[in-house]
Design goal:
The chain has 561 residues and is an alpha/beta fold. The chain contains 20 helices and 15 strands. The strands form three sheets. The chain has a six-stranded antiparallel sheet. Strands 8-12-13-3-14-15 form a six-stranded mixed sheet. The protein has a three-stranded antiparallel sheet with strand order 9-10-11.
Length: 561
């Protein structure tokens, strides 16, 4: 169950620590006080998508933290599979930090995780019933999900979905192979031409870089030859002038003649000898390079022609030689497939029919299980609705099987209803009022969550369109649910608020510059005042206080039954 919720800088909540207990907790407050902010904050730690607009104005970051105790065994197994251990006391702590830049940091027991991990854990933590669930009930495409949740169809669906996806892939490939023979022959001719063109070029990896370097050499050959020859002449000398080698040689000889006179002179003589040898080596290397500068025009033309071939191939098949060769491999593979298209088509057709047979078997089993579950679910929902002051209602869950498979198998599911005796069942959207939809949704939720591992249920304004006797029945039903699971309910109805074991007041206050929302746990006396406000508005009278006290007394008596 959820034992602690900490909120910082979320919307108009600057900071709030909400301590939650087992049983039935009601949250009340005036419209706009911030009740939905608490639901949004809980949604954040469940991995739901968040917006930077959720962060309090002027704050750089928003933060939500939750502590869960007495976690179910299924959640422990899920945490172990994800490599996330529980705390020493068996609790799970989830944190989510939101930044004004739109980034989000999630942690489970202080270990960083992604929002998708939080979403994976959420079915074991909290089930939120909001107004969007009622909207789903009005849309028949979601009805199959309600039914499947009842009998845990996920095991069969996990087998069916990959097969359904494979059938879709195989159909696409078979259609591709069924293109007209002329189109296929044209494609084969084109691929053969492209493959032959690439193979004729005999491309080598790294070849273009080497040729480009050689062309650069040709483009600078004149300057290179002139510079090398001039350097060689300056080093080696000519008929009229002495070169650096001759001058260094004479200098070294002069120093050698006086080397014996002192150690300094001896050192200088040795350095002169070293420099002379280095210059001799330099002169030899320069002369060798100067001799190699010469090249034939044919070689230059050959390099240009080869680079032109590579350029044309790159324009057609890829930005680099590596990409051109990769295209060759892909084209060769496609050519092989097209040349063997008839054989491959027969193989795919066999595979398609095998997969289709298996998929239909699973879909048939799903249909059988859905029909069985539909009868059981109908009876359970009707039983729940009798407790919710709808004793004459009839629910019919229609399971219609189609010959064509769909992502759910082969079925379409519709929830139909008759609210008055003698009237035929019709679609919910045509018959049910807002208050009836709220009670139907509560009945469905109550049935579906009885076997779920989730420890906390949250009902966000389940009282929409409800009043009087129906409201009292909903309150009793929520109290009944809270005996099995921790139950939180955001409500505007005093009948529901009175049934709570614990009462939290969401209150908004204004300062000169800011708006703040605080959460208060009410005492029994404070509950009377809050219920009186819910009964009569701001003008609380002695009579409304008496009515509020009576509501609490009646609620306490109902809890003892």
């Amino acid at each position: 169950m959820l034992s602690l919720l900490h909120i910082e800088n979320i919307a108009i909540i600057e900071q709030a620590d909400i301590v939650l207990q087992p049983g039935f907790t009601v949250l009340t407050g005036e419209t706009g006080a911030g009740k939905s902010i608490i639901i949004d904050s809980i949604g954040a730690i469940l991995g739901q998508r968040t917006s930077r607009e959720l962060i309090r104005s002027g704050a750089k970051k928003g933060f939500v933290s939750a502590v869960f105790e007495d976690i179910p065994a299924a959640l422990k197994r899920q945490l172990e599979e994800l490599g996330l251990d529980t705390e020493d006391d068996g609790t799970v702590r989830i944190q989510r930090e939101l930044s004004a830049e739109g980034r989000s940091v999630c942690r489970v027991n202080m270990r960083p995780v992604s929002a998708s991990v939080l979403k994976t854990l959420s079915p074991y933590l909290i089930n939120i019933h909001g107004q969007h669930d009622g909207q789903k009930l009005m849309q028949e495409e979601y009805h199959i999900d309600f039914l499947d949740s009842f009998f845990e169809a996920e095991t069969l669906l996990e087998q069916f979905r990959p097969m359904y996806a494979e059938l879709h892939t195989l159909r696409s490939k078979i259609r591709e192979l069924e293109k007209s023979g002329q189109q296929r022959e044209q494609r084969i001719d084109m691929l053969r031409y492209q493959i032959d063109e690439i193979e004729a070029a005999q491309l080598q990896l790294g070849e273009e870089e080497m040729l480009t370097e050689r062309r650069q050499f040709f483009e600078n050959a004149g300057q290179l030859a002139y510079s090398l020859q001039a350097a060689s002449k300056l080093l080696s000398g000519g008929e009229e002038d002495d070169g650096a080698m001759d001058l260094l040689s004479r200098a070294a000889d002069e120093l050698a003649d006086v080397a014996a006179l002192s150690q300094d002179l001896n050192n200088l003589s040795q350095k002169a000898e070293e420099v002379r040898y280095q210059v001799e080596d330099l002169a030899a290397s320069v002369a060798m390079l100067a001799a190699d500068v010469d090249f034939s025009p044919k070689e230059r033309d050959a390099v240009e022609e080869r680079l032109d071939v590579i350029y044309r191939l790159r324009r057609k098949y890829g930005a680099t030689i590596e990409e051109v060769l990769s295209y060759h491999d892909k084209a060769s593979k496609e050519l092989g497939e097209l040349e063997n298209a008839d054989d491959r088509k027969d193989e795919m057709m066999e595979e398609y029919h095998r997969t289709l047979t298996c998929a239909r078997e699973i879909a048939s089993e799903l249909s059988k299980r859905r029909r069985q579950a539909a009868e059981e679910l109908e009876a359970k929902i009707v039983a729940q609705l009798k407790d919710l002051d709808m004793p004459k209602v009839r629910i019919s869950i229609q399971v219609s099987s189609q010959t064509k498979l769909n992502p759910h198998g082969m079925d379409e599911v519709r929830f139909l209803i008759s609210t008055n005796p003698g009237e035929p069942v019709k679609p919910l959207s045509k018959i049910a009022s807002g208050g009836e939809l709220s009670r139907i949704m509560l009945a469905i939720k109550n049935v579906l969550t009885q076997t779920e591992d989730v420890g906390t249920l949250i009902f966000d304004e389940i009282d929409t369109g409800v009043s009087g006797r129906a409201a009292q029945k909903i309150a009793l039903k929520l109290g009944e649910i809270s005996h099995r699971k921790q139950t939180l309910c955001v409500t505007h109805l005093p009948q529901l608020a009175a049934m709570g074991d614990h009462h939290l007041l969401i209150k908004k206050s204004l300062s000169e510059e800011y708006t703040f929302t605080d959460v208060f746990s009410l005492t029994e006396e404070e509950r009377v005042s809050e219920l009186a406000r819910m009964l009569s508005g701001d003008a609380i009278t002695e009579l409304s206080m008496q009515n509020a006290a009576e509501l609490l007394e009646r609620a306490a008596a109902n809890k003892k039954k």
